[in-house]
Design goal:
Helix content is 74%, strand content 0%. The chain contains 14 helices and no strands. The longest helix is centred in the N-terminal third of the chain and has 27 residues. It is mainly alpha-helical. It has one domain.
Length: 308
């Protein structure tokens, strides 16, 4: 590809999301900061990339844009709320690769609801993704986990972000611009703040200042990473940008997590990581190369290393 302006933004995205993924649970593990507060501060930081995303763009005021925007936003924000809980009880080096296979849900919805024909590469990716889930399930019983049902929570996030990506595509087919979708994602995140407060039982009164400061720093990486994804996709081909970022951000998270926390996955966990990242990459590449558009809107990951 002759135009490589997307590369610096994709590199920044991988850096920001990779570091965020590795350290996103630090406020809770170090200072016992409620994961609901982590969500609240993340929702607030989303205002920063939303401002830049909307510059030079008009908000689509059609009801269908609001409807799709809210579905995309609530599934993305709801997934974030569950993700922060999962990260407090499970290993990031397994959670993020598992969430990265959310394109399998998008592919299956397209086949079942829209009657789309699944591509060969996507089929291989789905099979690899399903195999990785089995291996993660085996791994969760062999010492690769803390206490609590992190696997179930990670699967919930994976499903939510897969549904989110499906409706992102639906929004694009009716002409909703990316900036509008991103704005609704931000609004949805803010709308769920009262839910987080109810779950938490009110604001914590005895948290040290380091807890919110560290949370704001890590979640700002998350939010700004989403903006870098918008910028990378607006400058490069989605068929190249999406698979690259979809694979490399979880890889960086895995490497940093293993290095910092001095833990290694079991053989089942390692194979699951490889299958999850490989399957996700195949699915995203098959999907984007089959229906290329110059721009795309990321999930609130964050597509996580998610969906985008």
């Amino acid at each position: 590809m002759s135009d490589r302006r997307w590369i610096p933004y994709a590199g920044l995205l991988v850096l920001f999301w990779g570091v965020w993924g590795a350290f996103s649970s630090a406020p809770t593990t170090l200072y016992d900061y409620p994961d609901e507060m982590v969500y609240i501060l993340w929702a607030i930081t989303m205002l920063i990339p939303a401002y830049f995303a909307m510059r030079g763009h008009k908000l689509d005021r059609r009801p269908i844009a609001a409807g799709y925007g809210l579905i995309v936003g609530l599934t993305g924000a709801g997934g974030q709320l569950v993700l922060f809980q999962a990260l407090t009880i499970g290993p990031a080096y397994l959670i993020f690769p598992l969430i990265a296979i959310s394109p399998a849900i998008t592919v299956l919805m397209a086949v079942l609801i829209l009657r789309e024909r699944i591509r060969t590469l996507a089929t291989v990716g789905v099979v690899a993704a399903l195999a990785s889930i089995v291996l993660f399930s085996v791994s969760s019983g062999s010492g690769d986990t803390g206490s609590g049902p992190w696997l179930i929570l990670a699967l919930i996030v994976m499903i939510a972000w897969g549904v989110q990506a499906f409706f992102m595509k639906k929004a694009a087919t009716v002409g909703v611009n990316d900036a509008t979708t991103f704005a609704w994602m931000t609004v949805s995140g803010l709308l769920l703040i009262p839910v987080a407060l109810v779950m938490m039982g009110g604001f914590p009164g005895d948290a040290p200042w380091q807890a919110p400061a560290l949370t704001l720093g890590t979640q700002l990486l998350n939010a700004v990473g989403a903006l870098f994804l918008v910028m990378a996709l607006s400058r490069g081909k989605a068929a190249i940008v999406a698979p690259v970022t979809n694979a490399l951000a979880p890889v960086l998270t895995i490497v940093l997590s293993l290095a910092v926390y001095q833990t290694l996955p079991s053989i089942y966990g390692f194979i699951g990581i490889v299958l999850a990242i490989g399957g996700s990459t195949l699915m995203v590449y098959a999907d984007e190369s089959g229906g290329e558009s110059p721009t795309a809107t990321p999930p609130t990951v964050a597509a996580g290393p998610p969906s985008s």
